[in-house]
């Protein structure tokens, strides 16, 4: 049975006041999507106006060899490669030549890879490109470095920052509900450990993104609990730069064989409810053009999204799991896509300063 108009109006009023409780969010997710979309778009306009941001960056996935066995991963041992420091530097050099202000560095969990190995990547890039922002290493990679080097992860964070780490991707979050994690990534860090590492990073002055991977075996309630957790952390630390929605890519992995297929409406509702739930807490809601596809990413700009992430130049992880839109979106094409949605493109750096 649908909600009455006065009940919907009450939910909308609570949303604007930031007073939505868990059951309210679930109810709002299930109203007529047009109502949710209009609310999210109004909030987007109030918080960030009509600007849509993006960053010129390059992904560098330094290895696909990994000791973990996540059910959603199509990247692990896809080619069985490890990039040398010189190969990493060559990719960074190409990125700088093409106007990049950031390199995003992540890889599989290489057996025996400890703090000094991770630091070498950072210091080698910083020595050659001092002004290039290094956005690198998920909480899982920080934990892996600490475990391998028999150190406290806090000391790993301090050492990486000292070496030149500028910020961290808040990946490895997937769904921050352990009953789901036990099925899709049983050997990854727990939800509590992910939160602990993220909060310590923020405490040491290392900002991070926040992410969600949705559209597999999780419930709507799991998604909402995840976003509520992100909201709580941000209220405590203020260290998240954005919230990035990562639709599950189902090709070439075990989870894809049992996951429900996402719909376009579900994708847009997820982006919209994220804007509504994180209103005035996390200002930047990012859509992944490489996972959604260009058309749906453009459409998301009407439903609460204000950021399209990076130009990437290289994206092996989504490509291995079925992305068909390529690995690079030029700044010119990015701006055309934004303009055709009736928005104003703005180029930013990693920390959302306009450039």
UniProtKB/TrEMBL annotation:
<comment type="pathway">
    <text>Cofactor biosynthesis; coenzyme F0 biosynthesis.</text>
</comment>
<dbReference type="InterPro" id="IPR045567">
    <property type="entry name" value="CofH/MnqC-like_C"/>
</dbReference>
<feature type="domain" description="Radical SAM core">
    <location>
        <begin position="52"/>
        <end position="280"/>
    </location>
</feature>
<keyword id="KW-0808">Transferase</keyword>
<dbReference type="InterPro" id="IPR020050">
    <property type="entry name" value="FO_synthase_su2"/>
</dbReference>
<dbReference type="InterPro" id="IPR013785">
    <property type="entry name" value="Aldolase_TIM"/>
</dbReference>
<feature type="binding site">
    <location>
        <position position="138"/>
    </location>
    <ligand>
        <name>(3R)-3-methyl-D-ornithine</name>
    </ligand>
</feature>
<dbReference type="Pfam" id="PF04055">
    <property type="entry name" value="Radical_SAM"/>
</dbReference>
<keyword id="KW-0479">Metal-binding</keyword>
<dbReference type="InterPro" id="IPR034405">
    <property type="entry name" value="F420"/>
</dbReference>
<protein>
    <recommendedName>
        <fullName>5-amino-6-(D-ribitylamino)uracil--L-tyrosine 4-hydroxyphenyl transferase</fullName>
        <ecNumber>2.5.1.147</ecNumber>
    </recommendedName>
</protein>
<keyword id="KW-0411">Iron-sulfur</keyword>
<feature type="binding site">
    <location>
        <position position="72"/>
    </location>
    <ligand>
        <name>S-adenosyl-L-methionine</name>
    </ligand>
</feature>
<comment type="function">
    <text>Catalyzes the radical-mediated synthesis of 5-amino-5-(4-hydroxybenzyl)-6-(D-ribitylimino)-5,6-dihydrouracil from 5-amino-6-(D-ribitylamino)uracil and L-tyrosine.</text>
</comment>
<feature type="binding site">
    <location>
        <position position="66"/>
    </location>
    <ligand>
        <name>[4Fe-4S] cluster</name>
    </ligand>
</feature>
<feature type="binding site">
    <location>
        <position position="73"/>
    </location>
    <ligand>
        <name>[4Fe-4S] cluster</name>
    </ligand>
</feature>
<keyword id="KW-0949">S-adenosyl-L-methionine</keyword>
<feature type="binding site">
    <location>
        <position position="288"/>
    </location>
    <ligand>
        <name>(3R)-3-methyl-D-ornithine</name>
    </ligand>
</feature>
<dbReference type="GO" id="GO:0044689">
    <property type="term" value="F:7,8-didemethyl-8-hydroxy-5-deazariboflavin synthase activity"/>
</dbReference>
<dbReference type="InterPro" id="IPR019940">
    <property type="entry name" value="CofH_family"/>
</dbReference>
<dbReference type="GO" id="GO:0141093">
    <property type="term" value="F:5-amino-6-(D-ribitylamino)uracil--L-tyrosine 4-hydroxyphenyl transferase activity"/>
</dbReference>
<comment type="similarity">
    <text>Belongs to the radical SAM superfamily. CofH family.</text>
</comment>
<feature type="binding site">
    <location>
        <position position="174"/>
    </location>
    <ligand>
        <name>S-adenosyl-L-methionine</name>
    </ligand>
</feature>
<comment type="subunit">
    <text>The FO synthase complex consists of two subunits, CofG and CofH.</text>
</comment>
<dbReference type="Pfam" id="PF19288">
    <property type="entry name" value="CofH_C"/>
</dbReference>
<dbReference type="GO" id="GO:0051539">
    <property type="term" value="F:4 iron, 4 sulfur cluster binding"/>
</dbReference>
<dbReference type="InterPro" id="IPR007197">
    <property type="entry name" value="rSAM"/>
</dbReference>
<dbReference type="InterPro" id="IPR058240">
    <property type="entry name" value="rSAM_sf"/>
</dbReference>
<dbReference type="GO" id="GO:0005506">
    <property type="term" value="F:iron ion binding"/>
</dbReference>
<keyword id="KW-0004">4Fe-4S</keyword>
<dbReference type="InterPro" id="IPR006638">
    <property type="entry name" value="Elp3/MiaA/NifB-like_rSAM"/>
</dbReference>
<keyword id="KW-0408">Iron</keyword>
<feature type="binding site">
    <location>
        <position position="70"/>
    </location>
    <ligand>
        <name>[4Fe-4S] cluster</name>
    </ligand>
</feature>
